[in-house]
Amino acid sequence: MVGIVDEALRQGGDDALSISSYKDALVDFVKRTDTPMTIGVQGEWGSGKTSLLNQIWSDLEKCNKEDDSIDDFKQIWINSWEHSLLCSPEECLMKIINEIILELLDADTDKSRAEKISQGVNNIMKGALRIGSSLTLGAAGVDAVDDIFSESSNSIKELREQLSSLVSEIKTLETNKYGKVVIYVDDLDRIEPKDAVSILELLKNIFNIKDCVFILAIDYQVVVKGLVGKFGDPKPENEWEFRAFFDKIIQLPFSMPMSDYDIANYVLGLLDEIDFYKGEEELDPELINQFVTKSIGGNPRSIKRLINSLALIKILNDKESGDISEGVLSDKNTAMVMFAMVCLQIAHPEIYQLFADNPNFKEWNDQLAYRETQGKEEDDKNWKKNFEQAVKTDAFDEPWEQCLFRVCYLNPRRRAKATDISNFISLLDGPDFKDIDIISLIETALGQTAVTSVSSKDNPNVRPPKGSYQRFFVNGYDAWLSKTINDRGYDKKYPDFPLPESEKIVKQYIDYLKSEPYKAVDFDQEKSMDEQGSEYVIKYARGISIYYKKKKIGLINIDRTGKGESIELQASKHPKYDNAPLILKKSNIEFDHRRKIRELDEDNKEIRGAWGFVDFMEAKFNPMDVELTDEVIRFLIDESAEVRTEPEVNKELITEKKIQNYVESFKTKRKDSKEYSQARDFLKAYFDEGNKKIVDL
Questions:
Q1: What predicted TM-score, i.e. pTM, was given to this entire model?
Q2: Exposure pattern of 275-297 as b/e (b: 16+ CB <10 Å)?
């Protein structure tokens, strides 16, 4: 077998996840329960709900054939998603009812009598529901929908009574062999959430039928999403409303036991089906389990995607080696690391890409983190507290783990999974790979798995040469330009990068800094900032940063997008200009806040936008439109250096902390309070687009 089809376990299929005890319990409950009864099988999409329903069906069918001590079960399978296509929830319900009726009539082996009952049901529907002369839900059915489900209508009550009578009548027939009717309603979580909830609301009115057991496969979170319009966004104080709605429908909730899945057995079985590994040593089930549970989790659908990716990689390996019959994945460690990388690729593609760019995870550090995040994680008001707590744990006590924490922090989903990701990567440095060149294995795995990678990067499948990731800062302008072109893929996308006008401006900026009176030097990674040989230091990283007395005072960079090339210029704001961005009138350079609050919602006391790096201002301009003069460079450097190093000036600088205090007052203080008014007025004025100072330069 090559690929694994993403479909539910068929009726009578093997229990690969080893949850037969749960299935047996549900089957026994269905056998013994009084009716009417509604069971809700809950689980996320792809968790195996349909497979479990199929197993229950299969066991009850076996009872029908083998167990004479109990009455047989009439089983009806309803695919709600198929019924919902191109129709309203009300029409969907009518289709479901129609199918249930037709299946019930099929229980009578006396076809002449079944025909009479069918005619009687048609008459009932015709009278009570005004659908017409058939149950095909044609135009007449659509026209009757409003009448059927209107608040004043008794149609639902009548329909339930008639369905109940139908079940009872069929049960009493001497030709009937069924004692209980089990109705499965599957794929509700594939329907638009609000429509799924509407169907549930309508279905709950007909669930109360004697001798019937309804089994619904549903994701509780779909119900929650579908009820947002009714109850608002879920919060601790209104959670009971969502649960109460669910409880009105479901008498027995059952959650898919994903934590008890035998993941290792399931995965190893699938790996064997695709003939992934041909080595003499067995793959470690426990390590397999840990790699899966700490990345993609136990969702069977995600596991199948993993296996299909590995199947393709295995085929490519075979073809490249020329040994299709045996394959090349005969080394246990190679196979395990490749398995791990694909797990990471599927669960956390951004972290996989971090590996692709920097395979030696043991050398990840703060410099690498800054390259990835630009320090944006520190804009979060809770960053410092959360980081200090994290580094006290085993998961983040090493430099590479702290780098990982920073990278994960920017994304709420990754932040929540940061500990699992750290523990996942730590497995590669654990006893299972002792005395093995794990970095080489990772590099090999990355090269093989790139074909199944999904990345937003321009060139995700091409990694830097070995060792290129080890140095974040480079030495000098030429090295910086080369690295910029290679890292960003500009050699292929923009072969004319940089434009002569851009390069002229940047070189002028650097040359002026290296002249009197600054005598700036290029940063030497082998020396501390105190040992550089000058108080002015130029660091070449993502951009070209300027430091004075170990304080960053500015930056220049060349940026290129599909819209064109631009110069990025940063400098410190200055209190003597009211901490406002500047407009350099003669030079046609207009600065703005690096980040800014865009909107104050006074009604809801909410703020949109950000305020990180608020003490810096930033200008982006077309190099064709601006001539950066030495006078402008000197002005920006001198002003910024003064702000950073003169205590009396620095204390008047508006910082992120000061902005944060105003933000907190705006959000928490009473609207009629002085603190609220001051915060609102300050934030409005400070971030006003028109609040800039003009300098005659």
A1: 0.47
A2: bbbbeeeebeeebbbbbbbbbbb
